[in-house]
Protein: Tripartite tricarboxylate transporter substrate binding protein
Organism: Ramlibacter rhizophilus
Amino acid sequence: MTRQPRFARRVLLRSLPAVAALALGAVALHAPQAAAQAYPEKPVKIVVGFPPGGTNDILARLMAEQLQAKLGQAFVVENKPGAASAIGNDLVAKAQPDGYTLLVSSSGGLTTNPVLMKNLPYNPEKDFEPIALLATFPLVVTVPASLPVKNFKELVQFSKTHKDGRLDHGTPTTSFVLVAETLTEAAGVRFNHVQYKGSGPTVMGLLGGETQVAVLDSPAVIPQIQAGKLKALAVTTAKRSSALPDVPTVAEAGYAGYDIPIWTALMAPKGTPEPVLTKLRTAVRDILDDKDTVAKMHKLGLEPGDTDSAALAKRISDDIARWKRVAKQANIQPQ
């Protein structure tokens, strides 16, 4: 039997760790790609920080249905309301970054909570991976049908002649408080803010006479407006809503330049593998380009977004800076 020379055996033995390291490195490089190809292998949870009935919940369920059809696994919406969506957002921020826990968040949860809430347990700029801007939409200045006003100017006058000069304003989230503050500052009136746990409960507060006005997301109020139970006085965007074409903008009501859209985004925990994020973005891009989906969104007053994650990250940072200025001007302190 031929024996290997001792020198050759020594070289071979010394080479084995290097060969093993190269093999492990190749496996490690291949693992994310393999995970992305297989993803999703089990149901995916989409967390919403509000109760059912609001825009974030409506959008999350629309996306879940479409993602399930495209990716072949169940996408399950879980409502985790509380603390202006901070509870749900924090849950996702601390979740395993594997693509199986996602977040549908309002712009408020990502951009006004850091301004208005002390000791926020998550950092919107550091704890999440932006996947897609799902939609932008106006807020609607809404009052009960019984309130004796027909437009925003009349609401301002009614507020000034009210018993204490302030109407009770129902609000489901911190971002809506700041939008309302920009409105009242422009109009020279003030509101008493009454906090609810979501848009659905806020609508019920309006219908039940607990509050006289609410600045709410269009999908949450359109059914009640169409039923004649609520009145829409103005929208907060520069252009009229496609779902409410007869409702003027705040700018048209005499406050030139007023334009504050609200938005909703799909996010993942920081550290989610890029191949998984890419697969999700590709699927969401197809959904947002789908004509039937776009038609459904327009009917709700939503403008479809996009999957430009860098632009979404910048939007989050820019909006935080904007709301800090608004809060400072309104002398609103974090609580």
